[in-house]
Amino acid sequence: MEFKLVGLGDLREGDFFPDRCMSPRELEENSPMPTIVLSHNPKGRELLGNYRWDLMLSGHTHGGQIKLPFFSTPLLASEGETMHSGFHPYEDKQVFVTRGIGYIGPGRFNCPPEINLITIP
Question: How many C-beta atoms lie closer than 10 Å to residue 98's C-beta?
Fold first, then answer.
């Protein structure tokens, strides 16, 4: 299977420039080739409305880092992000967020690190 692979910098660090590596949506509308976007921060999805893409692979959230028993929302949700880990639908696309292997501050609780393998048929 052929696909386009696009890498974008960290939104939070001001290094997110889709116009440098992606074509506007109207130029890609009839393209049969899927586009996979690598974006450190899943919030970047909100800035890609003018671009055609199918799947975003992200990290940044550390899965929320701390998940208390009996609470569905992680304690350290970064910047109000609702996509902490796993696959999430977004409009007509998919976003996958990995918990990764790092952490900030005191560590992790009930949110183990992970390395993911995604198979694209």
Answer: 20
The helix (H) or strand (E) run that includes residue 4 is strand 4-8
Distance CA 45, CA 94 (A): 10
Helix (H/G/I), strand (E/B), else coil: 64: helix
Q: Which residue has the tokens 């198979």?
A: 119
DSSP string, 65-115: SB--TT-SS-TT-GGG-S--SEEEEETTEEEEE---S---TT--BS-----
Residues 4-27, buried b or exposed e (16+ Cβ, 10 A)? bebebbebeeeebebeeebbeeee
DSSP class of 44: G
pTM reported for the whole predicted model: 0.82
Residue 62 has pLDDT above 90, yes or no: no
